Amino acid sequence: MNATGRVVAIVLAAGSSRRMGGRNKLLLPFGDQPLVRHVVTTILDSQAAPVVVVLGYEAAAVREALANLPVAFVYNPRYAEGMTTSIQAGVAAAPADAHGYMICLSDLPLIEASEYDQLIEAFQRAYVRDPACIIVPEFNGQRGNPVLFAAYYRKAILSEQRLTGCRGLVQRHPEHVVRVAMATDHILQDLDTPEAFEALRRIH
């Protein structure tokens, strides 16, 4: 990896899947493995390093689903308060020499390793010009995930008060945002409901 663009993947795997009808969506089968293992394995195939997985709800079961994968785990005791607390736990656990954080959702199973790499490479190019860059993927003008933040924002992320993620941080720094047009809608295809899960699994 380019020494001026080391990107840590922070995988948010702490949520309680409230809209999934009582099932932990991360443990549901996707292909021949649990959804979370499919997603994390794909991220491991990308240029991101290391990969930090944030646990919370049913932490032991999620950890077991990721057994023997070369990832670092961090437990977020505040996971029920909102996504921001998990992002903060992951950023706090990231190596001090990281140049950027790729905030990965664990329910976007269609994103391919090459698409993660496209975003990492966009970060590396932007970082040379702007060490405060933020990379936002888009498909047909619609923003998706993962978003990549330069380590410049570490303190801002750790002190963020909004509990729904770091969207506000993106909105407050439009001059540093680099939008990356993606060729597919994979960055938008999250699985929040049983219907979405079954529809996506049928075509996978």
TrEMBL record:
Gene Ontology MF terms: nucleotidyltransferase activity
InterPro entries per the UniProt record, alphabetical: MobA-like_NTP_Trfase, Nucleotide-diphossugar_trans
Assigned keywords, A-Z: Nucleotidyltransferase, Transferase
Domain MobA-like NTP transferase: 9-175
Identification of the protein by name: Molybdenum cofactor cytidylyltransferase
